[in-house]
Each structure stands twice: as C-alpha cells, then as structure tokens.
Amino acid sequence: MALRPSNIVIVRLAALVLAVAVVSIANVRLGTLDVIGLLVFASGATVYLTLIKLGSADRQGRIDYLRSGEAAVATLVVFILTLLVTENVFALLGAVMLAFVAYNVARRVLVGTHRRAQAIAGVITLVVCAAVLAHLFSSISVEPARLAGALPALGLPHAFSGALYLLPLFMALSGAALYLFSRSLDEVAAFTQGARYFELTGGPFLPVALLLIVIRSAFTAIVFLCLGWTAGTGAYLQRRMNAGRLTDDVTVGLAVLLYAHLIALTMPLAGPIGTIAIATLLSHVAYAITAGRGNMS
Amino acid sequence: MIELRGIERHRGETTVLSIPQARFNDGEIIGLIGPPGAGKSCLLSILGGVDEDYLGEALFDDTPLRSIKRRERRNLVALLDRTGPENHDETLYNFLLLSRIAHKRFMEPFSDYDIQVVEEHLAHFELTAHRATPLCELTDSAYQRALVAFSLARTAPVTLLDNPTSALDPRAQMLLHRALARAVMSGGAIVLIASNDLNFVLQTADRVIVLREGTVRADLGASAVEADLIREHFNAEVFVTRNIYNGRPSVHFFPES
Fold first, then answer.
1. Most CB atoms within 10 A, among A201, A257, B113, B249?
2. Cβ–Cβ gap B87/A297 under 8 Å
C-alpha cells in the first residue's frame, strides 16, 4: 500500500529518532559520551539548525564550518586556551566567537562570497592551522595524552558540566532565531541579492551584514563547543529547509544529530586526530557532491 | 514631474555631466541617447539616488531628491542598471516577488495585490514557464526580461532603465515597448530610457534628449529626429525613414558600396 506523504514524513521522523537513540546508547556504552555529552550534543544540533537556516541569508555560510576553515581556527584557539589558560566555558565561548568574527570579516574582505573561493581559502586555513598545531605538539612539554585530549574533535562537552543551564538557553535562543527567520524569509531573500535589493526593504545593508557575521560567529562558536568537528555536512541540507515546514526543520535537526553521533562512534578507534580527519574527509565529499549539482555560485 | 537645476557631476578634473536646466513631465517616456561616455548612465544614477556626489538640485514634484528619505525613495524610483542580483540560485518567481518588498511590512507576507502584480509581469514578459527556474539557468533574453520585469513590477512613479534592450530579441523588445506604454498610460508615471538602441528609443519614447560630453545637445520630440542629428552626434553615416504605421523615424545604415 502506498503511503501518503504525511505518513512518509512520520515514518522518516520515527526512523531518525530510533537511529539517534541507538547510536546515542552505543556512544554511551563505548564511553565516548556521557549523559551530559548527550545533552550537549542535542543542544548543539538545535543551534546548528539555526546556523543552517542562517546560511540561506549569508552567502559566507553556504559552505560548512569545517570546509570554511572556522573549525581549524577554533581548534587552534581552544587548544591553546585549554592547555595554557583556562577551561572555563564562557572564556572559551568568548574567545572562539571573537576569533570567528575576525576570521569571517577577513574572509569577507579578502575572499568575497564566491563559494569556490571560500572553499579554497578554507583549505589554506586548515593547512596553516594544522602546521601551527603540529609545531605546538612538538614544542609544548605536556604528556601526549593531554595534548591529544585538548583537541576538541567532539567539542568540549565536559566544559559545560558546571554551566548546564546554558543548554536550555541555547535551545531557547535557537527557537527564537528560527521563529524570527521563518517570519522574515522575504527580507532574507532580499539580503542575499545584495545591497541594492536589500535597501528596498528600508533597512541598511552594511550594518545588517556585520550583525549577521556576529550572529553567525556566535552560533558557530556554540556549535563548535557542543559538537566539535562532528556536524560539518549539515550546511548542505539547507535547501531542504527552504520550504519553511516545521517537519523539514525537525528532520534536518535529527539528521545533524545522527551524523554527529555516527562521527563520534569513530572516536574510540580513530582517536581525536583520526575523527577530525574522517569528519573533514566527509565534509569534502559532501561539498563535492553539492558542487557537482551546480550549486557553486 | 522631475526638474533638474544646475546639475553637475565631476570626476577629478573632468566634468562628466552638466545640465543647467531640464524638466521631465508626468506621463512621458524620455529617451536619452548619445555616444558612449555622454553621461546617460550618470544622469540615471543621480536620479536613482545611487550617485549623490553631484552639484545642483534634482527636484521630484518640487522636493529636492536629497531631502527625500531613503525609505520614501524606494517607493518613488525604480532603477535598472548594470547592478544585477547576486544570488543566482533564486527562482525567477521568488526574485520577482522581491520587486514588491518595498510595499510590504516587515515580517508580513506579500499581499494578494503584490502577487497579482508579479503574476501580470510574469505573463506579460512571457516568463510564466520559467517561474520555478533559478536565475542562473535562464537564457540571456529571459534573464534581461526578468530584470526589466522586476523594475516595472515595482510600479514606481519614476522608472529609470539603463540599456534595457541589451540581450533582448525583437519579440522581447516589443513586449518591453508595450509594457512601457502601459506604465505611463495613467499619466502619473515617468520613464527614462538610456540606450544605444536608437530605433527602440525612437519607436518608444515621446521625447528624445541627446547627450554628448555630459551636456544636452538636443531636446526634441522623437518624431522630429532626423538623419543629420544622428550623423552629427554619433559620427555614423545613416539615413532615416518613417515607420508607415506611426510615422516615427527609423534609423538605417547605408549599405556598403
């Protein structure tokens, strides 16, 4: 019997929930994540949903944060801070966010908004950050296990253990942002067409563009600390959310969470560097697939 | 009505535009013609509010353009120039809907009237079949029709079109000609066309202004344009015949002998 579309959606959502539950249990059993880690992952996935939605307004957001080089920059910042300064979640959030604002402004000015150029700049940033990290690995006299532990392949779930109240706050923030976004999709569409078109709305383009960079940097910082390198490819699901249906948003959110848990499953075998390598490789594959569909502008 | 008083635009030492006095009346289609660098696009940029670095005053119904707030200006002037949309993944229909964004409130949906205006322009410019096509997949002609339709669907009292016929095939030019005639039919709108397509301008405009080296060299009814005027300002050997249906001039090159 053929299923009606609404039934298909329900079955798809149920299957995703089941899959997320199975891999969550697997991650707990393997010791990759604890209960707090599961909550942090769920919060991160919710915030990432907003980030994906933002990608429809911000042409800098059309590649994921792994491919853009943001994850590499954040890894460097977190690595240095956690080893040498502090593991305080607010300090880490602030530092990563500031690093993202600086990096994204520089990216906008130096590289522009062309997707291919952004991707190339992202690879260069990744290589530079990897080289700096390799140098730090060889020069800092700390035991290797602690060095590897400072790599936020799965984010920093333990950093949230003293500030769990942040997690519902992140979710509420995402919910509010998603609501505002769904109500202003036309203005968002005008923004993507450039200054001349956005000014038809009566709003000033440049302040909005800068505000968007700050908001995007803040959300990316939260996502990075919650999910690390595990959520990159979600950015390529943005088209699925264009219709503005709640079920599509929930499907994408669950898909992001499932993907993050699947990447996390590789951690016991591959270690943090191996997990980062796998996530980066998959991000490149996802980029190549979407680029092959002509989505290169 | 638009009135220009002592408009001057300088770039370094060079004066690129100098118009002591000019008036564009409601209900008129005005064609701006002239050789490259004559100041046609410059004048449209000033009137469109894009270029504000000029001397003198441009008055819209006796109100200086400079004193009209940006928010009000967006409903007053529609400018089509070389600045195209940046997001070519957008579908044609969604792109055209944006032409009505100045008429809607923030976070409110488009009204039925906005949708009707967009549908009418889609149909008029024969773009209905392409409504779901991303801009990047349109042919050159359909893309240019989309840009023209965007400007006209704004239903602004002043429409400024810079080279609107580039990439337009003859049928699309005819559709544009009809759309412009319809736009000024009520008598409350002004259309200025800057173009190198002399025949389109002469068939469409009520009045022709010849610009050269930034100054107005002639201002006359389109029907009064003669071959000497074209020869003098375009340095081209041409002759002029009359359209047998409306008596308007048609410019032809001499065949090579």
1. A257
2. yes
pLDDT tens profile A253-272: 888 899 999 999 988 888 88
pLDDT digits (tens, 9 = 90+) for B132-187: 999 989 999 999 999 999 999 999 999 999 999 998 999 999 999 999 999 998 88
CATH architecture of A35-292: Orthogonal Bundle (1.10)
Q: Which two tokens stand for residue B208?
A: 């022709």
The number of helix segments (H) and strand segments (E) in chain B equals 8, 12
CB contact under 8 A, B70 and A202: yes
Residues of chain A neighbouring B94 (CB-CB closer than 8 A) = 189
A294 touches B at CB < 8 Å: yes
B residues 190..219 contacting A (CB < 8 A): none
Task: Spell out, as residue ranges, where chain A has pLDDT lower than 70.
Answer: 1-5, 56-62, 113, 234-244, 291-297
CA distance B238 to B124: 34
Of A190, A194, A196, the CB nearest to B101: A190
> Domains in chain B, ordered, with CATH?
2-253 (3.40.50.300)
* CA distance from start to end of chain B: 47
Q: Provide ipTM, 2 decimals.
A: 0.87
Chain A residues in contact with B104 (beta carbon < 8 A): 186
Give dist(CA A124, CA A118) in Å, integer. Answer: 10
pTM of the model: 0.79
User: B129 Cβ partners below 8 Å, 6+ apart?
Assistant: none
Parse chain A into domains and list their residue ranges: 35-292
Q: Closest Cα of chain A to B238: distance in Å?
A: 39
Render pLDDT for A209-235 as a digit per residue (tens, 0 to 9).
Answer: 888 889 889 999 999 999 999 987 766
Helix axes A115-139 and A267-292, enclosed angle (nearest 10): 160
Q: Which residues of B touch A194 (CB under 8 A)?
A: 83, 85-87
Of A180, A197, A297, the CB nearest to B98: A197
Q: Which residues of chain A neighbour B89 with C-beta distances below 8 Å?
A: 295, 297
